[in-house]
């Protein structure tokens, strides 16, 4: 009997990316939830914790620069595999750490491994989807970041309460190896995949410019001389650190400001990160909807991103929140808007650059976001330590929320100046 080939297999691929990104953020989020326990055991100050976050961010930045080029050379299947093995082992090694310095070392190793996720995933989306579907596909897999952040506040306190903090790192870190089995069974590029129909391959390559694309390689250093590269870089540099703040400091914010018990499943955190899942998928859908309505690609992306930038602004008023649910509503809107923004800014890279350079560009932009992620935690740690000593910790958080509220509009404005119509790069 002749085997029936799938016409929509690309959505199976997106589901693989979704679960990988979920695991990626689950492993990343664990330390933020365990912070109140670990800072007592290891006598951390807010600055000590910020240095650990900076160690992750520094390694993540370096890893992005390297992994982007590596994935362009060795392909998405092997590149993703190497990335996941490194980050899962590093996540598990947190369980044997005995010092603050040790946490910095294993966080750095985690950062190197996790840096391969987005360059690989964005390249996979470019390999499997035409432009008009990429933002929606990116929004779906990017929502895994939020699901990971939703699962963590339920899973980690439960493991902590029964088995202790070491097992929280071991169990969450081991999950990645289960995903790896499915990755090797189900993934291959479209042209080599036995389950994909010629009809679907033709649809994937329906963007004529991409179908005729040269296979010649480009040196990543040459990408720094291209204006569109800097459009992506600036956008990531100014906005990625805000999401890292939401990941690494929100548990502590709710604990210190509203006496949230982080040894129990946390409903406020679950609601915040659930909202980000809606933002990620909805954000990807909105620009794709505009394109299907006949809008030019650049207009659809920029209009959607401007809407999301405006949705972050109300977080500035979090200082007026008189109860935890008001704060949850404001932060949920901002975090959801970030993920909607993220789904679209990643897609701007695939709009402007051909597939053969895409992982490198995403890696460079991700590195820029991580550099921001190095500088911002340093600022956050010192602001919070300064106001904590005076007994005014909430003022410190209010200053940080003000920065968060302005970052996206600034990023949008600079990106617009650098690349008004996001013209595709001819390499």
UniProtKB/TrEMBL annotation:
Keywords, alphabetical: Membrane, Transmembrane, Transmembrane helix
Compartments where located: Membrane
Residue span, Major facilitator superfamily (MFS) profile domain: 13-423
Residue intervals passing through the bilayer: 52-71, 78-97, 163-186, 229-250, 270-291, 303-321, 358-383, 395-418
Superkingdom of this protein's organism: Bacteria
Membrane-topology annotation of the record: Multi-pass membrane protein
Database matches in SUPFAM superfamilies: MFS general substrate transporter
Name of a matching Pfam family: MFS_1
InterPro entries: MFS, MFS_dom, MFS_Na/Anion_cotransporter, MFS_trans_sf, Sugar_P_transporter
Protein name: MFS transporter
Gene source species: Mucilaginibacter dorajii
